[in-house]
From TrEMBL, chain B:
Key words of the record: Amino-acid biosynthesis, Aromatic amino acid biosynthesis, Lyase, Tryptophan biosynthesis
Native organism: Herbidospora galbida
UniProt family annotation: Belongs to the TrpA family.
Residue ranges crossing the lipid bilayer per the database entry: none
Record's GO cellular component terms: cytosol
Catalytic machinery residues: 48 (proton acceptor), 59 (proton acceptor)
Assembly description: Tetramer of two alpha and two beta chains.
Region (Disordered): 259-289
Positions with biased composition (Basic and acidic residues): 259-269
UniProt-listed Pfam families: Trp_syntA (PF00290)
Protein name per UniProt: Tryptophan synthase alpha chain
Length: 391, 289
């Protein structure tokens, strides 16, 4: 038996090394099987792929540009290239996955999309794709996140989605996931659970990574055109569940590029987590000594998740990717610095990746002259109100 | 040799009894072990003890709230096992919890700890058939019955596999959805009960949404008995004392016994007042291991 190549098809077990799997109630097993079969079929169907590519092009604004960050690069003594997912329709990489899953749901004859959301970006993307394809959307969002991300809640309402406040537990993304899954169990006949990150039961971690792979593949080709060495020395992305990082890494996993995922210090499952089972998969999870899952805390609602996608845990264990943490203060400084050197207001989530690059370049962790590809996963408009107090 | 959960339930069923398994979240109220005793005194055939988890995916608001309370009160697996060890109620105790607590160290260690504390069964709703292999082996080694769940959405072929792998009983979900009280008995439950009874000799117990004695009796006609959870935990959260919870269990007990009496094909001609033999006379209390 040969080991699967990194970031390939995990097979029917949905395992990435020790991680992944399908830890869901029996009631959801048939739905997971159905989605896996539908995705395998669609992904092998050129007609489906064409339709997805067309929508990503004429609707979502792909391919996204690769922007050299000239002034900031000069300050840091490196070559920094930004993969501009912030320029997609709805303003974050979430749209890549959602258009794919919404097309799949439609193909499966489902009438409604269910989604969880933290910062609201995945919720907005789901509401958008649902409107585009004539599906209904129900989005579960923690009460605390609703307060923090009022603008995205309004956007979802305008798009015709129902936003359900989640009042249990920490009232953030983790609880929104619980609630979305509970709702899915009860409505699995007509509803499709449009999961927003590389997490959940098989096939989601694999499927979402495949739908996000477009980031890495475009970036790989763009780097080849932009860089004399064709491949950057570093490929960096922020990690909550880890979907933009997974999509980016997938384009570079077979190169010499060093892969770096950057977590919020208060939600760093890859750094401080232990193996556990949450939301249908086995991975690294922030939990207390007794096994109760802990709340994640960061300035970026989209990173407030106490686990990471199972494939990231596997990449970490094998040493193919490394995972770093940054503080809220570093993140806010990085956001402002990019805004003032490049005229780009990045999302707080994406600013985590940037904060690590700045720290590493300034401390010699990244050698001078290095080339760095950074996925700017989303735009920061939604965060302006929340960073006002932090400036 | 001690009596296993499966042997105990099967013997009680053989005595003509509809099985009743009430649930309590450990630590949800001070003195929760008195609730276990009250259940046993009220005619429970086994008691399901929930080990509270922060993210109980399959549970509705009532059990989530009970779990949150228990965790906030400092309830831990170690503490629950310590209290359970001191419990001797004459019927088997079954642990119900989520995979993250089971796999903290390893499934084998968890099963060993449960068995040492005298528990006879384990239910882990987020560990389905495909993920249950190693855990089932570990449980079997400790003579702990790993109970698997079956849902209305489960295919007949899968039901066969689940029935083949489950021990103790098969936990049949009355409906798609989470735990919680609901009104009617869905047709899909009746169908699932029928299918399972065709496929296995294991006791088949319905759970989820059992919210009144009459409904419990109705459900029990389609299987061997019921698990009652949210209806009891709602009362506990509202401040019911162990004695009151015991009275509620007793009312379900009476309804189930009545269901046996009223079963049309066998007992329709029995006069209503005639007492059936007490199954306790035939199947004695569980000897402690």
């Amino acid at each position: 038996m040969t080991e699967h190549a990194l970031m390939s098809d995990p097979g029917t077990s949905g395992r990435f090394g020790d991680y992944g799997g399908r830890y869901v109630p029996e009631s959801l097993i048939p739905a997971c099987h159905e989605i896996e079969a539908a995705f395998r079929d669609a992904w092998a169907d050129p007609g489906f792929r064409d339709r997805l590519t067309t929508l990503l092009t004429v609707y979502a604004g792909r391919p996204t540009p690769l922007t050299p960050a000239h002034r900031l690069s000069r300050e840091l003594g490196i070559t920094l290239l930004l993969k501009r997912e912030d320029l997609t329709h709805t303003g974050s990489h979430k749209i890549n996955n959602v258009v794919g899953q919404a097309l799949l749901a439609q193909r499966m004859g489902k009438r409604r999309l269910l989604a969880e959301t933290g910062a609201g970006q995945h919720g907005v993307a789901t509401a958008t794709a649902a409107a585009l394809l004539g599906l209904r959307a129900t989005v579960f969002m923690g009460e605390r996140d609703i307060e923090r991300q009022e603008l995205n809640v309004l956007r979802m309402h305008v798009l015709g989605a129902e936003v359900v406040p989640v009042t249990t537990g920490s009232r953030t993304l983790k609880d929104a996931c619980n609630e979305a899954m509970r709702h899915w169990v009860a409505s699995v006949d007509d509803s499709y659970y449009c999961l927003g990150s590389v997490m959940g039961p098989h096939p989601y971690p694999w499927m979402v990574r495949e739908f996000q792979r477009v980031i890495g593949e475009e970036a790989r080709a763009q780097c080849a055109a932009e860089l004399p060495a064709a491949v950057p020395d570093y490929v960096v992305a922020c990690i909550g569940g880890g979907s933009n990082a997974a999509g980016t890494f997938a384009g570079f996993v077979d190169t010499t590029a060093r892969l770096v995922g950057v977590e919020a210090e208060g939600g760093a499952a890859a750094t401080f987590g232990r193996a556990g089972v949450l939301h249908g998969f086995r991975s690294l999870v922030l939990q207390d000594e007794h096994g109760q899952v802990q709340e994640a805390h960061s300035v970026a609602a989209g990173l407030d998740y106490p686990g990471i996608g199972p494939e990231h845990a596997h990449l970490r264990d094998g040493g193919r990717a490394r995972y770093e943490t940054v503080t809220d203060a570093e993140v806010v400084r990085a956001l402002v610095r990019l805004a003032r050197t490049e005229g780009i207001v990045a999302a707080l989530e994406s600013s985590h990746a940037l904060a690590w690059v700045i720290r590493a370049a300034e401390s010699g962790g990244i050698a001078p002259g290095s080339t760095v590809l950074l996925t700017l996963s989303g735009r920061g408009d939604k965060d302006i109100a929340s960073i006002k107090e932090l400036l | 040799m001690t009596t296993s959960l499966e042997e105990f339930l099967t013997a009680r069923r053989a005595a003509g009894r509809r099985l009743l398994v009430p649930y309590v979240t450990a630590g949800a109220a001070p003195g929760w072990t008195d609730v276990v005793r009250a259940y046993a005194d009220a005619g429970a055939d086994a008691v399901e003890i929930g080990f509270p988890f922060s993210d109980p995916m399959l549970d509705g608001v009532t059990i989530q709230e009970a779990s949150d309370r228990a965790i906030a009160a400092g309830t831990t697996v170690t503490e629950i096992l310590r209290e359970v060890t001191a419990l001797d109620v004459g019927v088997p105790l079954v642990a119900m919890t989520y995979g993250n607590l089971v796999f903290q160290r390893s499934g084998a260690e968890f099963c060993a700890a449960l068995a040492t504390s005298g528990l006879r069964g384990l239910i882990v709703p987020d560990v389905p058939l495909e993920e249950a292999g190693d855990l089932a082996d570990a449980a079997a080694k400790e003579h702990l019955d790993l109970v698997l769940l079956a849902a209305p959405s489960t295919s007949r072929d899968r039901l066969r596999q689940i029935a083949g792998r489950s021990r103790g009983f098969v936990y049949a979900l009355t409906r798609m959805g989470t735990t919680g009280e609901r009104g009617e008995v869905p047709e899909q439950a009746a169908r699932l009960g029928r299918d399972l009874k065709e496929l296995t000799d294991l006791p088949v117990l319905f759970g989820f949404g059992v919210s009144s004695p009459a409904q419990a009796a109705e459900l029990a006609r389609h299987a061997d008995g019921v698990v009652v959870a949210s209806a009891l935990m709602r009362r506990l959260l509202d401040g019911a004392r162990p004695r009151e919870l015991g009275e509620y269990v007793a009312s379900i007990r009476r309804a189930l016994d009545g269901a046996v009496d009223r079963e049309p094909d066998e007992h329709a001609t029995l006069p209503r007042h005639r007492r059936r033999p007490d199954p306790q006379d035939q199947v004695g209390p569980l000897p402690r291991g």
